[in-house]
């Protein structure tokens, strides 16, 4: 099982970020499995339909015409530069920051400010070379930094899957239970990893 392999391979990193108990490991691996399949990936943003683009990026496309949205379809770089412009430390559309600092890592570090934070914590210049998140170790470490910065061990210790899922998926806690994207899959994976990390 990949989660077990990764937990052994990167034990020193997990220890460094206090993901040491079976419950913390179960929650961490359930989330990175859901988010990235535990793979080092970068966000694609290759949308082919207006409906899919609007669903994924409701706020940036709110009030925009279908003709406007269609200008960004099947063009991942252009899409990223628009939807992530002037957010999370990124510059405007013309800077190319949206594409450069699109989501990467096993949880999905997004935006220049978050790449800067990752660089400060690790001492590795991810701002200069964001493609490092295509490496397994860097991708996992990015997820660990996100986990610690958001104090997710606190919720893992309380077995609060909904809270962890909200923070990862929505960036904040919500009142509704199970409203984060893919919540049922996260729940299913958590049950599996609770058995794996007994």
Describe this structure in words.
The protein has two domains: 2-39 and 137-196, no CATH class; 50-100, no CATH class. It has helices at residues 2-9, 11-16, 22-36, 50-56, 58-61, 66-70, 76-83, 97-100, 112-122, 136-149, 152-157, 161-170, 183-196. The protein has 13 helices and no strands. The radius of gyration is 17 Å and the shape is globular. With 198 residues, the chain is mostly helical. The longest helix has 15 residues, at 22-36. Helix 3 packs across helix 13 (183-196). The two termini are 14 Å apart.
Task: Please tell me the overall pLDDT.
Answer: 97
Count of domains: 2
Query: What string, H for helix and E for strand, traces the elements in order?
Result: HHHHHHHHHHHHH
N/C terminus separation: 14 Å
Instruction: Point out poorly predicted stretches.
Output: none
Strand residue percentage: under 5%
The gross shape turns out to be globular
Give the fraction of residues assigned to helices: 55-70%
For the largest beta-sheet, the strand count, sense and barrel status come to:
none
Q: Which structural class should the secondary elements be placed in?
A: mainly alpha
Q: Could you give the count of β-strands?
A: 0
CA gyration radius, whole angstroms = 17 Å
Q: Tell me the number of helical segments per DSSP (H or I, 4 or more residues long).
A: 13
List keywords for this structure.
198 residues; 0% strand; 13 helices
List the helices and strands and how they pair.
Blueprint: H1 2-9, H2 11-16, H3 22-36, H4 50-56, H5 58-61, H6 66-70, H7 76-83, H8 97-100, H9 112-122, H10 136-149, H11 152-157, H12 161-170, H13 183-196
Helix pairs in contact: 3-13
């Amino acid at each position: 099982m990949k989660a077990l392999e990764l937990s052994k391979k990167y034990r020193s990193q997990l220890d460094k970020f206090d993901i040491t108990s079976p419950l913390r490991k179960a929650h961490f691996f359930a989330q990175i499995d859901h988010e990235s399949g535990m793979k080092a990936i970068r966000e694609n943003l290759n949308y082919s339909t207006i409906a899919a683009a609007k669903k994924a990026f409701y706020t940036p496309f709110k009030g925009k015409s279908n003709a406007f949205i269609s200008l960004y379809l099947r063009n991942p770089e252009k899409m990223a530069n628009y939807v992530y412009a002037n957010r999370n430390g990124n510059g405007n559309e013309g800077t190319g920051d949206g594409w450069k600092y699109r989501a990467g890592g096993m949880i999905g570090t997004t935006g220049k400010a978050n790449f800067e934070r990752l660089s400060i914590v690790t001492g590795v210049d991810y701002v200069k070379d964001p493609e490092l998140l295509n490496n397994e170790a860097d991708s996992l470490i990015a997820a660990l930094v996100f986990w610690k910065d958001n104090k997710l061990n606190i919720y893992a210790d309380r077995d609060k899957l909904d809270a962890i899922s909200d923070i990862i998926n929505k960036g904040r806690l919500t009142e509704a239970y199970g409203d984060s994207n893919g919540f049922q899959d996260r729940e299913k994976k958590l049950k599996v990893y609770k058995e794996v990390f007994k």
